[in-house]
Amino acid sequence: MAELVDPAAQSLTEDGFLGGRLRLRQPAAGHRAGHDAILLAASTRVRAGDRVVEFGSGVGTAGLAVARRIDGADLVLVEIDPSLAAIAGDNARLNGLAAAVVCLDITGSAETFASAGLGPDSADAVLMNPPFHDAARHRGSPDPVRQVAHLATVTTLEAWVHAARRVLKSGGTLTMIWRADGLADVLSALGRGFGSVMVQPVHGNADKPAIRILVRATKGGRAPLVLVPGLLLNDPSGHPNPIARAVLAGEQILPLAQS
């Protein structure tokens, strides 16, 4: 068995998710796993035996949360940063979960994907949290790898959706989380090859606009778009909403994973 990464040597912390049922090591500095990844996992519809591919997995948070929920999922974690990919592999072993880890650029060619075992029409489900910060509004990190991970270009969303369409089987599902103000861009990117789109807005507070959208689309789907009731993270008093708290604790899934 491969030796786990030493948190002290790698400046990692070990943190609990899903009420402590998922333990993850992650860099102490920089972007860290949070609510977005767990909400994405709770929105991903998966059955035992499905091949599930997480694009841009980082340390594996969303994909491993799915694997913790669904016994027998065939999980593949895809990450461009070799150091994060290595930590993702360690996290899978730390939690006793089976996962293949592939170090790969999501914008790579079909041949590159196939050589990594991700050929066309090979996945039942893809989940992803693509870089979605607008480069025109956010100051990027001086580290080019971190910029790729967090800042979206005009082609980022199209490229990631294209890659998902390529690897998904007909009838397979793509689940993603994105900025709420980018809904039009998401629907445009899904316009080719996807249908049966479901959208759930996520609100930080009841009196504020949505901050995120959770989206599920089916390759080859033909059903009309469905907008499901929004998820409220905090109640009017500022305390965590009981439904959101249950989802983050891994006790409840969201509507996109149910139907």
Descriptive overview:
- This protein has 259 residues and is an alpha/beta fold.
- It has one domain: Rossmann fold (3-Layer(aba) Sandwich).
- Helix content is 30%, strand content 28%.
- Strands 3, 4, 5, 6, 9, 10, 11, 12 and 13 form a nine-stranded mixed beta sheet that branches. It has a two-stranded antiparallel sheet with strand order 1-2. The protein has a two-stranded parallel ribbon with strand order 7-8.
- Strand 4, helix 4 and strand 5 (99-103) form a beta-alpha-beta unit.
- The longest helix has 13 residues, at 82-94.
- The radius of gyration is 17 Å and the shape is globular.
- The termini are far apart.
- The model has no long low-confidence stretch (mean pLDDT 91).
Question: Tags for this entry?
Answer:
single chain, 30% helix, 28% strand, Rossmann fold, two-stranded antiparallel sheet
| Element-by-element helix/strand order | HEEHEHEHEHEEHEHEHEEEEHH
What's the number of domains?
1
Rounded mean pLDDT score: 91
Text of the CATH class: Alpha Beta
CATH superfamily: Vaccinia Virus protein VP39
Give the overall shape, derived from the CA principal axes. Answer: globular
Strand proportion, as a percent range, falls in 25-35%
- Helical content stands at 25-40%
Q: Termini separation (Å)?
A: 38 Å
Helix count, DSSP H or I runs of 4 or more residues: 10
Low-confidence stretches: none
Major beta sheet, specifics? 9 strands, mixed
How many beta-strand runs?
Answer: 13
In terms of structural class, how would the helical and strand content be classed?
alpha/beta
CATH topology, which one? Rossmann fold
Instruction: Quickly give the CATH architecture.
Output: 3-Layer(aba) Sandwich
The rounded Rg comes to 17 Å
